[in-house]
Amino acid sequence: MRSFVPSRSSLLMAPALAWLTALMVVPCALVLALAFFRRGIYGGIEYSFTLENFGLVLDPLYASIFLNSARIAGAATLIAVVIGYAAAYAIAAAPRRWQPVFLFFSVLPFWSNYLIRTYAWIVLLNREGLITQLLRWFGYTGEPPSMLYTEGAVIAGLVYNYLPFVILACYAPLSRLNPELAEASRDLGASAMTTFRRVILPLTVPGIAAGAVFVFVLSIGNFVTPALLGGGRFQMIGNLVYDQFLTANDWPFGAALAMALIAIMLLVLTAQALAADRAAGRVAEAKGGADD
Amino acid sequence: MTSSPARIFGLRTTLVLVFAFLYIPIAVVVALSFNQGGLPTVWSGFSLKWYASLAGNAAILSAALNTLIVALVSTAIATLLGTLLAIGVEMRRQYGSGLEALIFAPMIIPDIVLAVALLSFFSMLDFTLGLHTIILAHVVFNLAFVCSVVRARLKSFDWSIVEASADLGASAVTTFRRVTLPVILPAVVAGALLAFTLSVDEFIIAFFTAGAGRASTTLPMQIYSMIRFGITPEINALSTMVMAVSITALTLSQRLNRGVIGQ
């Protein structure tokens, strides 16, 4: 039986793995290869080797778009992590039987349509939108504030769209936290704030890191939110890739940008893995300490 | 933990504020879809007229039909392949991290990267773009999600009953139909519902792999082009209907298989 199992399991996995290879691995490898070719005179691809496209990625003009994207994605990540952690903390502190319900309803919007969730913010933020109406209702009579098509609108849209994942990622370690650790810390005279900072926070770093990576990676490669809520005024890497493929018709450069995006993603994932490893060390220490 | 009144108040306020933040924007769109006057600013009475006007919009109807075709076909293929993959992986138990990464990749790779990769791939092969290329592309991430839902269910599966069934003379197919499938069926259906929702809502990859022309426009593509022209009561009505479909499918999925959404 045992010797029979591997071949049967390979057979079961084969169709899916073939699909993933043909329609994910090969196309991605192709894009990587494309990044080393030249753009043809009429927008096609000229098959001669070059590193120009990667050089262009580092060109000050494009490097500034990268930095800008990183700043917007970083701000969205920071805000989403703060709100998401607080929400996850409140859910983990709720009565046990309510926790799955709260969790379900905090993640539900995440699985509904991304475009619609972004559109909802146009409805809220436009000059005659709900927020302006509310201000008027409170007696505001001046010019309607311009909130849409600003960097703040882009950040708000990103936070709104990716918050559920942070809640989910932070809830996992928070719900597994041993309450005795916090009690021990208080018994030893630590304030609530110190207990949080020195005991709870370090033990929940893996959740924060996972949530942060997710928001950052998805934000930096986004093109829908900057296009809709930024009114096209805030170029992010995603918009740049979009333009190279669909309007500028410079596929090799677009491919190099896509690869830069993947490189950033891998870098951030590695950082997360390191943070998780260090936190695992702390958890082991905390457990060892508790046993003494 | 100590539960002082101040602490409880703080925790409850946090929950209320977060849920308000998550649901008010959506609720506003839903409410406006029933607004008779159609203005986003003044409430002029309840009406279903914007839903009726959707029914008379040929572009929206054809986009809805396209979306349904893409979602149903890609879900069917992904459910079959994803379930087989999950069984194969869990049966084997010892697998390299390479395999794990390959199965996990479609869920974390940025949409725009997969979208441009597939566009390059299809155009290099001189593939005509259309609904079929969207389906090919959607199966990629759908099968990964189905696989992860089914694998979670199989984690607690006792493989010795499969061996027992084989020892008692059942064929592999009979064993699958009578032993394995009943155990994983809720997860398979939950995974399929999740895949269906993801496909109905997916915009970026569809946008890049649909090709030019209106014939293969899906609902999210239609919504995107409508949004770019501004707020209209029709978008509110359409958004409400699309969200109702997603939320129904996901709630069903969650009921069938606790925790599916949390993965």
UniProtKB/TrEMBL annotation, chain A:
Membrane topology: Multi-pass membrane protein
Domain of life of the organism encoding this protein: Bacteria
Keyword set, alphabetical order: Cell membrane, Membrane, Transmembrane, Transmembrane helix, Transport
PANTHER family: INNER MEMBRANE ABC TRANSPORTER PERMEASE PROTEIN YDCU-RELATED (PTHR42929:SF1), INNER MEMBRANE ABC TRANSPORTER PERMEASE PROTEIN YDCU-RELATED-RELATED (PTHR42929)
Coiled-coil features, chain-numbered ranges: none
Gene3D superfamilies xref list: MetI-like (1.10.3720.10)
PROSITE patterns, alphabetized: ABC_TM1
UniProt key word Transmembrane: yes
InterPro entries the record matches: MetI-like, MetI-like_sf
Domain ABC transmembrane type-1: from-to ranges: 66-274
TM regions (residue ranges): 12-37, 49-67, 73-94, 101-122, 153-174, 195-220, 251-275
Protein name: Spermidine Putrescine ABC transporter permease component potB (TC_3.A.1.11.1)
Subcellular location: Cell membrane
Family classification: Belongs to the binding-protein-dependent transport system permease family. CysTW subfamily.
Keyword Cell membrane tagged: yes
First-listed, main subcellular location of the protein, grouped into a coarse class: membrane
Automatic annotation (TrEMBL), chain B:
Membrane-spanning segments: 12-34, 54-87, 99-123, 129-150, 179-198, 235-253
Keyword terms of this UniProt record: Cell membrane, Membrane, Transmembrane, Transmembrane helix, Transport
Ranges where the ABC transmembrane type-1 domain occurs: 64-253
Bilayer disposition of the protein: Multi-pass membrane protein
Compartment(s) of residence: Cell membrane
InterPro entries: Bact_Polyamine_Transport, MetI-like, MetI-like_sf
Pfam families assigned to the protein according to its UniProt record, in alphabetical order: BPD_transp_1
Family to which the UniProt record says this protein belongs: Belongs to the binding-protein-dependent transport system permease family. CysTW subfamily.
Name assigned to this protein: Spermidine/putrescine ABC transporter permease
Originating species: Mesorhizobium ventifaucium
